[in-house]
Design brief:
With 216 residues, the protein is of the alpha+beta class. The chain folds into 2 domains: 78 residues, Nucleic acid-binding proteins (OB fold (Dihydrolipoamide Acetyltransferase, E2P)), CATH 2.40.50.140; 128 residues, de novo design (two linked rop proteins) (Up-down Bundle). It is built from 7 helices and 5 strands; from the N terminus they run βββββααααααα. Helix 2 runs antiparallel to helix 3 and helix 3 runs parallel beside helix 6. The chain is elongated. It starts with a strand and ends in a 5-residue tail after the last helix.
Length: 216
């Protein structure tokens, strides 16, 4: 049976010489993996439609034997092209997607996370790359999934906590205008790393580059 969904491409990798595996975050089905048969052929109907962070309308068939579902059709709505003009922004977007994949269960719809990721992808090019945005992302994802933050689980000073609370509750443009000291950013990064580890996952390797702070 064919299903339709609105999805954002989280990552892709080759399955065969001609086919591609595509991981999505969809509004309707959550984290979804599909196989795009023939997508790597020059004349494929999928060509130019399955790049990183593309937002699309997709049609797929549910597989009864695995969690890899045949992709039937794709229509691109937004390529989020500005992300590709700045490597630092792209690094932050890749980190955000990788963290999300590690935290969520496969094929469990959480529409709020889809909306949150879409809002982040649109907001990132609106201001210079900043660890403040990554703090906001980590806090909002953890809170949406009911995984934190636990303010009592680690030592975080009053001033840093107040700024993190603004990151949790604020819009992306307000987060971009927050004023952290270097010491507060480092303290916030270590606190949030512990929160992620408390959720039972290892922080993705891109985290240090995304935060732009060593030793996180």
């Amino acid at each position: 049976m064919e299903e339709r969904a609105t999805g954002i491409v989280l990552r892709t990798y080759p399955l065969t010489e001609t086919s591609l595996i595509v991981h999505w975050l969809t509004r309707e089905a959550g984290h979804l993996a599909t196989v795009a048969k023939g997508a790597r052929r020059p004349n494929s109907a999928f060509r130019g439609k399955l790049d990183l962070f593309y937002k699309t309308q997709l049609c797929f068939s549910r597989s009864r034997r695995s969690d890899l579902h045949p992709l039937r059709e794709v229509s691109v709505e937004d390529t989020h092209a500005p992300l590709r003009r700045d490597y630092a922004l792209l690094t932050q977007a890749v980190y955000a997607a990788t963290l999300l994949e590690r935290l969520i269960e496969r094929e469990t719809p959480v529409p709020e996370l889809f909306d949150l990721l879409e809002s982040l992808l649109k907001a990132l090019p609106q201001s210079p790359p900043s660890p403040r945005t990554m703090a906001g992302w980590e806090l909002k994802v953890l809170a949406t999934l009911g995984l934190g933050p636990d303010w009592n689980s680690g030592r975080v000073r009053t001033g840093t906590r107040a700024l993190l609370e603004h990151c949790l509750e604020g819009t992306w443009d307000k987060i971009a205008r927050l004023s952290f000291t270097a010491e507060q950013l480092h303290e916030a990064g270590l606190f949030l790393r512990r929160q992620i580890e408390s959720a039972g996952i290892r922080p993705p390797s891109q985290r240090q580059s995304a935060w732009q702070i060593p030793d996180l």
